[in-house]
Amino acid sequence: MSEALKLTDLSKSFAVGKRLFGPPKAMVHAVQPLDLTVTTGETLGIVGESGCGKSTLAKMLVGLLPPTTGQIEIEGAVLDNADPARFGKRIQYVFQDPISSLNPRKTIRQIMEVPLRRLHHMDKATRAARIREIFAAVNLREEFLDRYPHEFSGGQAQRIGIARALAAQARILILDEPVSALDVSVQAQVLNLLADLKEAFGLTYLFISHDLAVVEAVSDRIAVLYFGAIVEVGSAREIFANARHPYTALLAASAPEVGRPIVAPETAATELPDPLSPPLGCAFNERCGFATDRCRAEKPALTTDETGRAFACFNPLATTR
Amino acid sequence: MRGFLTLLARNRLALVGLIVIGCVALLALITPLLPLANPNVIDTPNRFQPPFSAGAVLGTDHLGRDLLSRLLWGTRLSLAMGLAAAMIAATIGSAIGIIAGYYGGRTDNVIMRGVDMLMGFPYILLALAIVAALGPGLMNALIAVAAVNVPFFARNIRGITVGIAHKEFVDAARLSGMRNRDIILSEVLPNVLPVIVIAMSTTVGWMILETAGLSFLGLGSQPPQADLGSMLGEARSALITHPHTSIVPGAMILVIVMGINLLGDGVRDALDPRLKSGALSRPMPATTVDRHGPVPTARTDSLLDIVGLRTEFRVRDRVYKAVGGVDLHVEQGECLGIIGESGSGKSVTALSVMGLVASPPGVITGGAVHFDGTDLIGAPYEVLRALRGRRVAYIFQDPLATLHPLYKVGDQLIEAIQTHDPLSKEAARIRAIDLLKSVRIPNAESRIDSYPYEMSGGMRQRVGIAMALANDPDVIIADEPTTALDVTVQAQILSVLSDLRRERGLAIIFITHDFGVVGQLCDRVAVMYAGQIVEEGPTEAVLRNPHHPYTSRLIDCVPTLGGGQRKLAAIPGLPPVVDRLPVGCAFAERCDKADPTCRADAIALMPTGAGRKTRCLFPETKQERIV
Amino acid sequence: MTGYILKRLVSAIPVLLGISVIVFLIMAMIPGDPATAILGSYATPENVEKLNRDLGLDQGLVPRYFIWLGHMVQGDFGRSFALNRPVLDEVLDRFGATLILAGTSFVLCSLLGVAAGVVSAARQYGWADKAITFVVLVGISIPSFFLGMMMILIFAVQLRWFPVSGMWPIYGDRTLWVLLDHLFMPALALAVVATGVIARLARSAMLEVLRQDFIRTARAKGVREGRVIWRHALRAAMVSIIPVLGIQAGFVLSGAVYIEMVFQWPGVGRMLVDAILKRDILLVQGGVVFIAACYVMFNIMVDVAQAMLDPRIKT
Ligand SMILES: Nc1ncnc2c1ncn2[C@@H]1O[C@H](COP(=O)(O)OP(=O)(O)OP(=O)(O)O)[C@@H](O)[C@H]1O
Ligand code: SF4
Ligand code: SF4
Ligand SMILES: [Mg+2]
């Protein structure tokens, strides 16, 4: 199987307290150097809590943010967005906030036409025909084309966003929390639509979400992100039921579930560490029940076990099998 | 555009401004065609003629020149100068602002430092310096006034552009293959344009005043040419003896600028989308009540008994029936969950209890809220206020927005305590620390002096809970207190709430859209749809065996952890908009069991088993769920 | 706090330099031979030669700037040829009068404007709101010099309540009371526009704040409405009002030029206008730099006030 996306040593740091001249006051490492591959045709889910670097990662993949280090290969070629008209055909992005991803002063048709004209240089008639096709694929009525974005509900707007991404005819879609702004009943519609489109067009997805159940429902593989680093990668079926990294286990235990009594999964009420003064060693050590002295001194590296599960922990949880 | 014009016309004051300005502008335009005396012909023997004298309707000035003629020619010049200055300043300033805001980084930094420096002058100094260098004169005054206003536009427009340049649609345009220049022209500019128009319409008047001012000082238009400012300036020495020569041009300036300002405000209101929805109105201390007919009596002797509550939003000619007859009751020590999708009326129900629905536009139009023997809906403000926070307390969703950003959390807690309990500051502080400890905030003694922005989301929400507990209330209404938080933090907050409830015997109304949370925390649950309760009953029973088709299908379409990769059972369609509710069952559009009887008439909430009620003609019966 | 003040003071240095560059560049736009232009009708050959020597006018732009700056740092702003005395002396003599006038006006417009805005917002659509809105509209539409003239006409000439003009009577004592008597009309005329602008802004800032969630929280706690408005809401609204107070101070200072003309107030504004009409370039240049520098200092005070109000700034 070929690799749709291959990230090597990819990282991003932001300067805080910029000055006009001279170095900034401090750096925040939003994404720490990471390696990851997405195979063609799969859905890779990425979960993590707010602020863990999910969106930063996604924006780098589509060239909206330049990486600090490392390299991104899309279908074997190094990412190069010098020419937006070529780049847009390779990878596309679906945004979290469906309404604000549509220009309020353009009609849906005007929005849909841009990728067709700029990326594929289609003439007017071809464009109209193509838009009709895409709209049919995402179950939108054609009469919507001459309306403005504010006339749509979140779910409809998100379909339009997906339709625009499809118009570019890229084979890889980065879906950044595509349903978290939607209501549950609409969320299911959009998730199902995404699944259908994937099958119909042979797409590869990178699906980002903070909702474990949603990610599990759509993904083949899942990577868990914590504090800008991947802490565990494994098959969607296994990873939460059988977590090896204590953080993955904590996430799974925190998801509210009917019938399970409430227990605060942490004794000490700690939250994410301060990005301006990151802890030494494992970023999770202040919240981890298994932390040892080594965890406080050394950063664990991502290692793969015999079952193909990768995790970054010195004292992983035992497999239950 | 048409919408803009109607909005503008609806604003009566703006219309007055438009008419005034229209007339003045028309007069100015046709001035050369009017049979007027030459404005510059000196006729000293006839100087200082009073108004209404023969041959000079407005009289003459100190050189015997016809005032009416000078006034009209002067108006023409002043209007033209003001407009020209505004156009120049707006064009240059906006271009600078858009470039700085769009490109950001060092470009922005350098440009804006320069702009800040220009704004570091009281504006007239800059204008005076420019005039001093270039010499007095009309054109130089125009340049000075325009130059002085460029930084204003640049800064204003830059701010807006920064906001737009970070919008997701700009990223989307880039991914659609657009280049920076195209994005600026086709994505950014159309969104900035209304702001430029607003800024212009609100500054044209100002520019007219400024150019007139320079002429008044003798630095603008030079004799004999008349503009309104120079006319005033020349008349000043005769102010006491012949006031009419001053009043005529002065009044004209006032009329013009006032007309422009009225019009400008109208333009702003019509273009500013926030004002369109009427959102910028001040919420009253308590929700307006407009209740007709008899007040429903309490059905039970519950602690809190909501009967037939109706709350609507009146926005212009539309009425949004956000809550359409809700019955709910909570017992001492009980936790009642309210679950429903966005817009189903959960928050409005909760806020109506203590009259906290923003009003205008909210109005409570029916029903009663019986608490401890009083009907809160009809209660006078003072009664309501005395109960707020003392007997019924709230916890809101977004802990950053709900705490005052400029007060220390301790002071906010102390205020909550002292509002209902005349304790000394020291005693209140001790109690505040205890409260913080009770919600398990570590180092409460030092945390009490933190500002909200210094705390994490979870800690802020703990403060929110502590504040609700401050006066040992009987009922706590929690409106999605964990929705804004991460799962691990949510679990902590839920555990705090659940322990407190057990320790203190609190009654809690817990609003959420998460079945998992309801299942873990609540004894009873009410499901809302389109402003009504569609199903109510013991949590376990409802989740295991939902009676209403909506509940059942909603549970189905939420993925739960451990289910693996799968297709979800989505509900087709969208919830109805609450200003156009159907007559019969609101769910009929999306229900696969719907039949004509469902749509015929309103459907009542009927008992369907032990402690259960359902608003459906054909409740689900058979399937038993496995949870 | 002290750290913050120091930081702001240090950051004022580049601003002051920038201002001096801007003024210098504007003055360098003067067409023709600079010395003759500066001296105008006082251009005797000796004067021209002396000026050329003093200001390095025969040199390039950059050295000229540094010569000028060097002089200024030492307190030498040059010499006014029309008045035949050092620029700085003249400016300092006049500045006190302007400060009294503009300072009084500024205090007036801040207090009146904020109070009117708050009342207007709290009584939105009530009669108080409508009345204030109307007065404010007239206030921001009337040219201050015209207003001043009308006030003279009505209150000084017709009613004889206040003196027509000037800061002190030609004969008689210079008591505080006499000063106030002379100050009242010009200060009020000067304050009107700024009051209007501040009132409008305060109203919309208050309306904005009153819709915020934390106001609802305060009400849900049972806090009395008066306290909600004057403490919770006003405090938050001040964050956006204070910067505007800073900007309005600049407008008051600007308006003072007109008011000083109308009321014959012996301040720097009148001095500047006279200097321009007499083409006394060095006096203009010195006066502008001096006032701008004072304004920069004032804005630092505004920033400090803002930082005291908003704990989020002190970083
Ligand atoms: N200020 C307002 N003006 C007009 N309509 C409003 C206003 N506030 C709420 N509504 C309407 O009232 C209805 C119910 O809103 P409500 O906030 O109670 O929903 P909710 O169930 O709490 O939703 P969410 O899950 O998003 O919090 C919605 O249709 C909404 O559009
Ligand atoms: S490395 Fe140590 S601290 Fe980090 S997760 Fe593993 S056991 Fe916990
Ligand atoms: S009343 Fe009819 S339409 Fe409504 S939920 Fe029941 S079966 Fe469906
Ligand atoms: Mg809500």
From TrEMBL, chain A:
GO terms for biological process: peptide transport; transmembrane transport. InterPro entries: AAA+_ATPase (IPR003593), ABC_transp_ATP-bind (IPR050319), ABC_transporter-like_ATP-bd (IPR003439), ABC_transporter-like_CS (IPR017871), Oligopep_ABC_C (IPR013563), P-loop_NTPase (IPR027417). Transmembrane segments: none annotated. GO terms for cellular component: plasma membrane. GO terms for molecular function: ATP binding; ATP hydrolysis activity. Signal peptide: none annotated. Residues 5-252 form the ABC transporter domain. Coiled coil: none annotated. The keyword Transmembrane does not apply. It is found in: Cell inner membrane. Keywords: ATP-binding, Nucleotide-binding, Transport. It is a peripheral membrane protein. Belongs to the ABC transporter superfamily. NCBIfam families: oligo_HPY (TIGR01727). This is Peptide/nickel transport system ATP-binding protein. It comes from Celeribacter baekdonensis.
TrEMBL record, chain B:
One of its GO terms (molecular function) is ATP binding. GO terms for biological process: peptide transport; transmembrane transport. One of its GO terms (cellular component) is plasma membrane. Residues 307-555 form the ABC transporter domain. It is found in: Cell inner membrane; Cell membrane. Its main location: membrane. InterPro entries: AAA+_ATPase, ABC_Ni/Peptide_Import, ABC_transporter-like_ATP-bd, ABC_transporter-like_CS, MetI-like, MetI-like_sf, Oligopep_ABC_C, OppC_N. Keywords: ATP-binding, Cell membrane, Membrane, Nucleotide-binding, Transmembrane, Transmembrane helix, Transport. The chain crosses the membrane at residues 12-37, 79-103, 123-148, 188-209, 246-264. It is a peripheral membrane protein; Multi-pass membrane protein. It comes from the Bacteria. The keyword Nucleotide-binding applies. Residues 75-264 form the ABC transmembrane type-1 domain. PANTHER family: DIPEPTIDE TRANSPORT ATP-BINDING PROTEIN DPPD (PTHR43297:SF2), OLIGOPEPTIDE TRANSPORT ATP-BINDING PROTEIN APPD (PTHR43297). Belongs to the ABC transporter superfamily. NCBIfam families: oligo_HPY. This is Peptide/nickel transport system permease protein.
UniProtKB/TrEMBL annotation, chain C:
It is a multi-pass membrane protein. Gene3D superfamilies: MetI-like. The chain crosses the membrane at residues 12-30, 95-119, 131-156, 176-202, 236-261, 281-302. Keywords: Cell membrane, Membrane, Transmembrane, Transmembrane helix, Transport. It comes from the Bacteria. GO terms for cellular component: plasma membrane. CDD domains: TM_PBP2. Its main location: membrane. One of its GO terms (biological process) is transmembrane transport. Coiled coil: none annotated. It is found in: Cell membrane. Belongs to the binding-protein-dependent transport system permease family. This is Peptide/nickel transport system permease protein. It comes from Celeribacter baekdonensis.
